[in-house]
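Re: the 421-residue chain
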Amino acid sequence: MKRPEVLSPAGDLEKLKTAVTYGADAVYMSGKKFGLRTFSGNFDHDDMKEGIAYAHSNNVKCYVTMNILALEDDLALVNDEIDFVAHEAKADAVLVSDPGIFTRVRDVAPDLEIHISTQASVTNSEACNFWYRQGAKRIVPAREVSIAQIREIRKHIPEDLELECFIHGAMCMSYSGRCLLSNYFTGRRSNGGACAQPCRWGYTIAEEKRPDEPLPIEQDEHGTYILSSKDICMIDHVPDMIEAGIDSFKIEGRIKGAYYAACATKVYREAVDLYMKDPEGYKTDPRWTDLLEKVVHRDYGTGFFYDAPSDNAQMSYDRTYNKPAFVVGVVKSYDPSTDTYIVSQRNKLYRGDVLNIMRPEGYEEPVKAAGLFDMDMNPIDSMPHPQTDFRMRTDRKVDLPPMSFLSRDGDKDEGILPNNI
């Protein structure tokens, strides 16, 4: 069996470096135009060149999304962006869904690898073979394609045509993500990258002649969220995914934060490596589920890998995100002269707080923040201001390499920032 690639989201330069540190084989990213996540930080040209160079120095590939459904005005600007992505930033591939952009990539950068986005709604082997004949290297099938169908597709496509599937994160409620709700309600272009996610809103019913008398739908005490999809979580099904012939495990989440990217990348990296090392003896590690439960997410499900949309719509009836952990800091370095860790603060932290540790390799038991200091080693009782550097001394010796995350369970403070930062 071929070892699948772990493909992680890189919404900005920090998230890219985090994903690389936590074991990604590849990352996907977007410039300021032509991608479908304009609300993530994304990359200007300087950051894209820096990020791709950093990833390549760590043997990690970079794919740039250019998967909008292009309007005529977009085509007037796309050639320059393709030229930059291919020849200056030196990306490894671009993701496209629009045949027009596909054609432009072939014309401007004929040696640049092209991956077909899930937005193209590829659901069968003939469609895969069509794109292969045009020169595509990889297909991201529509999310509606099941594991059984992926196995059949794999039998009828060339061996060197790769399949990439989303295995973790949020799903769009519309077919292959093709949605017009955002356009209708807010004027934001769903398939141009500016979706406002109205599928996540709560809804009531109003009778035509009584618009001021909405009727609740008694799904639960909070209302109804009939358009809101569950998040995919396939950590318990990694063997099925590998044996089906999936070449790349894609983690959704460019809008989510560095902590999310770190946790999801670490978990699927460990799962893939463990299975490839010993398929017969493979067992899931309960610590993987523990980590995935700590990141911002909606109720988890398995998407349509095992259930057809008509059988199980994978709707989430809870309007809230699950976020039981709060990141309080990211380790930058260790200073042996003071026996302190230099930490970049993310949420309020008190001296004496018990902190969970998440690091690139291995696991640590919780530690106590036995001492907090400003950068001049003046003792302090708390750190109230995000993005401030401080020093921390723990109650016991622990290994906290750079980019280790410190978090605590629960929400201790009013107005605390969630862990999607």
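The radius of gyration is 23 Å.
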